[in-house]
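Backbone geometry:

***
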Amino acid sequence: MGIDWAPKTNRIVTCAADKNAYVWTQNEDGKWTPSWVLLRTNRAATCVKWSPKEDKLAVGSGAGIISICYFASENNWWVSKHIKNPDPQ
């Protein structure tokens, strides 16, 4: 499981062994609301990190894939593009 906080935008991103990630935003009443991140991975999401601008995030998985995620406002969720680790051979 992974977690990271974006201090400028006050958002939290989490990922877990259930292959899911969520971006959590705090409402005005203090309640945290999750927004789903579409990872498209078949293994556990093991680590997560916000970009310096806090507009993208990276999620690593047990499959050796890194997902670069960004918010798609037309769908109201986070989508990802995969970067595969190069073959070590």
